[in-house]
Batch of 4 targets.
Target 1
Amino acid sequence: MNQVRDREKKRRQYLRRLGEAYISAAIAGALFVPTLLITIASVIATISCAVLFVFHLCMRDGSADYWLSFLMPFGGSAFVVGLFTCALWSALKYAKREVSIPYVPPVTASTLPAEDILVRGADEPPTAHGEVLVRAARHGQETPKEELLRVRPGESRD
């Protein structure tokens, strides 16, 4: 019987781990695409500001400082959101690995070994069936012994 409890415990652990893996995969998947797009936009903005900064620096018209003020926030946001995107990518890979955990079947009579399944009445000898008497359910009235039904060996008691 202890083996059945262990199998039930393993099944609960399997279902809990599988549920956690699916939830983390759903959250990471839902956040990954928007953060990836924000990262790409931030990188493009950073590159654009860097090109304009270098261009205006070479032109020496004094507006290079203007583009430098945009370069730092876009570069910082590209870095921070890029790190977050990498973390989400790692979470997706981890969730994929967690979803591939070995299957643990549910505990049912068909999956249990024969020694763990209880069969009622299996220890009752076949001669005892003939001694079992069946009485009609009548309130306050006793059924005479001649009217009692007996099960004969070889007949079913359905």
Target 2
Amino acid sequence: MNKIHVRTGLQTRPIMVLSHPPDGSGELSLQRHGNCYIELFQIAGAKPLPEYRRDPSADLRVHGLVHFAFQVSDVPAAIKELKAKGAEIAMEPVDTPGVAFAFVRDNAGNCFELIQYKKQ
């Protein structure tokens, strides 16, 4: 399984890394930052994201968890760093008066958003 490690400036503390499911065909990593917990699963042989869900705008029309966002202080700088590390950019940065945002894919094709809230 290929892994891309990204330093986001968010300091998480790994709580545990387990084989999951019980047959050992994958891993579960439980991360913690303050009172926020994130479970990350990597399962061998998992089906890829369907092609129709690869467009962030179209994916909003599908029920379920579509994406989640990480707040960053500088979206263009974060995207530049991720590109240098080989990450797939699903949507280049969009700059508006109130926010800047971009979408990035993990190695399974799922989107996550980087968002920068600007002071008004």
Target 3
Amino acid sequence: MASNMQATCPQCGQPSHSIKRLESIFMVCIMIAAWWQRNEVTACSKCMRQHILKNALINIVTANIVWTIIILPYILYNLYQTFQPGHSASVVEDIYRATQRLYTQAGNQSRNLPPSNDSLSGKLGDLSERKQWKSSNNPPSE
């Protein structure tokens, strides 16, 4: 299954069986108004935890009182997700698409079996290009 395959972390470049794609929030709150920005981050569990904790520290200052109501539960849920084994569902989907692209390029469209880990490793490309994949039906060219 694709979720057991290794993929390269876009942050640190290390191969991992547990690449996560989570949404992070940056919030600025002034007593009568709030502004926030959501970003999709793809990284291995270790890099994702570092990103979440760094973002939490920044948000303590910028989100002030809203931090305990909105940001803290969100951070705890994301940290919980980083300790779950395997890739995130959206990463598995990207691995599947990359596998299908490799089969198409190799002319093996009739086979339903995924390639071995060795043939797929390193050929997935940057998983952070997912937003570009969503905007068009064609995956980014290499």
Target 4
Amino acid sequence: MDDVKEMVGRIRALTKEKGTTVNKMLVSCGLGKSLISDMEARSSYPTVDKLAKISEHLDVTLDFLLGRTDNKDTAEKLQTQESKLKKPLSDSRAAEVLQVAFVKAGLTDENGMLYEDSAKVISDFILTNSDMLKKLVGNGI
């Protein structure tokens, strides 16, 4: 399939998804209404500046418009989605999670109380490995 035709198809589909027309989108980007038909007629790409305006307006990456990926999400969208996944635990939920981990690791007595020497080992481990732990948490582990 011709790459220009594929791009035009993506642009048309995206404008339809957005509930607008290609002409309205082009006008709102400050581009000429004939841009898409010119692309089709000449089988040529517009300038990078024009493509950037279109991708920004349609809220997709240039790579998506060029057919290099099927992922429409911009880095900003992905970052927003990721931040929604990283909601902080409440203190009580964090305590519950740690309590279960400590019990499974055998660091507590029969009443679930942390052994004093265990607390020191855990504290030292966290302080010594804080950079690594931050990376692990940052990677969703």
